[in-house]
Amino acid sequence: MMKRKKVIAKVLVLIIAFTACFSEIRIADAGTNKEDSKKWAAAYLEIVKKLNKQDSNSKASVSSDFWNQPYTYDLIYFNNDNVPELVAGLDGYWVSMYTYDKKQDKVYQVMDEWGYGAMGNAGYEYLPKKNFLRNYNSDYAGAIRCVYCGKMKNHKMESRYPKELKEMYFKDKNKNGIPDEGEYTEQASYYYGSKKISKKKFNSYIKQSGKFKAITGTMVFKEIRKKLRDLM
């Protein structure tokens, strides 16, 4: 009976020691992450403050429904690292995106007020942690729809492909590149550059596994400021 109690006591000691050790590891990891986030959160906070000042100055100088909207912000994981990108913009009009380089301790602007909401441009979307941006831009009442697929490289956004991707809902009989009367069709044709390709091939360029999300702000200045301060 005494031996059994000793064995149980030893097991309990080992469990307590392991739990304490594991807790220390978790606390150490949390501390490291906190130290890492302090730098990028502080850097993003400076950008947000400048943008808010720009927003306030614009509203003070111009009175309209357009400028009554506040800038909005968000933190998204665009590429596959543990530092999020900062999104800022005026909903329905333009959006910017910033990334933080840990090695250089510097913020870079990847998207500089990219416009949308007009001229057939519905906005920009991304696949979280896949470094994949997608944008549809329509013209001639949707008869031509160009698809831009981008990736972030060297702190800049560039096209993933060397040639243009587009859908055409017309048969260009006179070869002038635009839809004319009698040329419209309900059946789409797909192109990579000037080469006609199948729908399956076209989709292989623009569709990837995962769910696309809109690159747009979800928080006003006070909310993003609090979020960033909490990370510091």
Write structural notes for this entry.
By secondary structure, the protein is α+β, with helices and mostly antiparallel strands. About 35% of the residues lie in helices and about 35% in strands. It is built from 4 helices and 12 strands. It has helices at about 1-60, 65-70, 200-205, 220-230, and strands at about 70-75, 85-90, 95-100, 105-115, 120-125, 130-140, 145-155, 155-160, 165-170, 185-190, 195, 215. The strands form 2 sheets. Strands 5, 6, 7, 8, 9, 10, 11 and 12 form an 8-stranded antiparallel sheet that branches. A 4-stranded antiparallel sheet has the order 1-2-3-4, with helices on one face. A hairpin with a 2-residue loop joins strand 7 (about 145-155) and strand 8. Helix 1 runs antiparallel to helix 4 (about 220-230).
Outline, from the CA principal axes? globular
Oligomeric nature of the chains = single chain
Structural class: alpha+beta
State the helicity in percent bands. 25-40%
Q: Unreliable stretches, pLDDT < 50, 5 or more residues?
A: 1-32
- How many beta-strand segments? 12
Report the radius of gyration as a whole number of Å. Answer: 26 Å
What's the SSE pattern?
HHEEEEEEEEEEEHEH
The biggest beta sheet is recorded as: 8 strands, antiparallel
Query: Helix count, per DSSP?
Result: 4
* Overall average residue pLDDT: 86
What is the first-to-last residue Cα distance?
55 Å
Strand content: 25-35%
